[in-house]
Design brief:
The protein is α+β, with helices and mostly antiparallel strands and 275 residues long. It is globular. The protein has one domain (7-260). The protein has a four-stranded antiparallel beta sheet with strand order 1-2-6-3, with helices on both faces. The chain has helices spanning 7-20, 40-48, 56-63, 81-88, 96-122, 130-136, 152-158, 209-213, 228-239, 243-246; strands at 31-36, 71-78, 127-128, 162-164, 170-172, 178-185.
């Protein structure tokens, strides 16, 4: 027998996980959105991203054969203001607090994903966190040319939470400086309306501020000019060397995030003409 779940209960579960996992040390409170698992965009992503990108149904079947995916629950974790301010002052490498958010804050987000699935399962539903599932299957971002089987940014777009910028980051109502989590489930919830319709770039003004902030010169004047391998190479060649001395830890992912701070979309949707 499945326990009754609604959007209010989902929000309460996520807020509690945000506190108990330690995510509150790195992020402001999460805000969730819901996409229908049958939304046409998920099939469209096989053309936009690649045939290898999972639909919600393909993903859920991997852990629960015969289950029917109904909803994709996505949450945004805005980065704390003090961390944004520290990173905004940097020009070459991420601030220590930003790097810690990316490394250890994302571990907390992983635990939110993991425990949220467990709570849904306890309530009688099937659930899978695809970010964790692709890691379990040996996913290698470099071998896949900086793409993945499941893009949480794209899932967030479908769930009405934001649209893409020139940097390929997601501009949300509370800005682009954030992390994302998501779960696919057979729990049926009403989807969040997309106020921007089907325009993936509706909230980006193309002001170019993020391109000016990028030390790798990996962001161009159009969305098609975003160079993810160049961005990744900059982290490997200019951020990782000496990271033990500068940051104090090794082996966890780092991202500079300079394009997400000191830009008009850092805290909110930008207005036309801002730069």
């Amino acid at each position: 027998m499945s326990e009754q779940m609604d959007r209010g209960k989902i929000g309460s579960l996520l807020n509690r996980l945000y506190r108990v996992t330690g995510a509150e040390c790195f992020f402001e409170e999460p805000f969730p959105g819901v996409a229908s698992a049958s939304d046409a965009w998920f099939e469209r992503f096989k053309s936009v991203i690649g045939e290898f990108h999972w639909t919600p149904q393909e993903a859920l079947e991997q852990i629960a054969p015969g289950a029917v995916a109904k909803s994709v629950i996505v949450w945004i974790l805005p980065v704390k203001r003090s961390t944004r301010a520290a990173n905004a002052a940097e020009k070459v490498r991420p601030a220590v607090s930003w790097a810690a958010m990316r490394s250890f804050g994302e571990l907390a987000n992983d635990n939110m994903r993991r425990q949220f699935c467990r709570l849904l399962e306890q309530a009688g539903y099937h659930a899978v966190a695809l970010h964790l599932e692709q890691v379990r299957q040996g996913f290698d971002i470099v071998k896949m040319n900086f793409t993945s089987h499941w893009s949480e940014r794209h899932a967030a777009f479908v769930a009405g939470l934001g649209t893409f910028g020139l940097s390929a980051g997601l501009i949300t109502e509370r800005g682009i400086a954030m992390r994302i989590g998501s779960v696919v489930t057979d729990l049926e919830l009403s989807p969040t309306p997309r106020s921007y319709g089907d325009d993936p770039f509706a909230w980006c003004t193309r002001c170019g501020a993020c391109a000016k902030r990028c030390p790798a010169h990996a962001i161009g004047k159009t969305n098609a000019e975003r160079d993810k391998p160049r961005c990744g190479a900059y982290i490997v060649n200019h951020v990782n060397p000496g990271r033990g001395e500068r940051y104090g830890w090794l082996d966890l992912a780092l991202g500079c995030g300079l394009c997400q701070t000191a830009v008009p979309c850092e805290f909110r949707r930008p207005r036309q003409g801002e730069c």
